[in-house]
User: What shape does this take?
Amino acid sequence: MDLEGMISGKNGKSFITQRSAPVNDPHFWDGRAESFTEFAARTGYAEKFLKIMNPEPDWTVLDMACGGGTLAVPLAAKVKSVTAVDFSTSMLAVLLERCLDRGIKNVKRVHGRWEDDWNELGIGMHDVAVASRSLLADDARASILKLQNAARRQVYISTMVDAGPFDRRMFEATGRKFSMGPDYIYYYNLLYEMGIHANVAFIPEYHADNWANHEEALAGQRWMFNSLTGEEEEKLRAYLEDHLSFDDGRWWLPYERLCLWAVMWWDNRRHKE
Assistant: This one.
């Protein structure tokens, strides 16, 4: 999604609002594929998600917008097969490399996006459909219906709570207003409007950011913004210079951020439309 992007309104339809990052742009994710995958692998998110999910060995699973395999890789050892779909070719390349390194042979990669015709992509039916931190399509209701239509048993989705992984202090430092659109409560209410009474659990992630030097620290913030103006970058640089402290060979921010993710799931056999 671009800075002037889309968020879902009534019945999942879209209207224009300001977005903080181009999260629906495959080129954005192509550039972040390796760093995002490495970070996601060390937060413990996947282990906590799978504990909620409690996968069964006979399951076939659709992992929509799979990224570099945050869930697909650990899931592969616990289920019959995983179909991993993403619109970023770099993310799919990272996933392939991780599968080859681990000898994983039951993950099928598909290059595609939410808006595509899933029949043409050959996605097919699965026991369980998952969309982890990835409900990025313009029409949220249509995306949820696609997940339902692809799942025989259960559907799992997760989305951020409040600001999620974004650091509001960084936006205040640049003078840019933070606006990421609706968080989990919007999607929970949308599910309710669709007749789905979803279960909800929360996954905490603690972010204690640190870098090798100031330039690396500055580069590490750019993903939050849809391009920085020269003035904004200088303000951000000044903020980091004022707040970073050196300890144990790394530069650290003086605060730890709690990022919450909401996992919502339901038995699809009772809620198919």
In short: The longest strand covers residues 257-267. Residues 26-42 form the longest helix (17 residues).
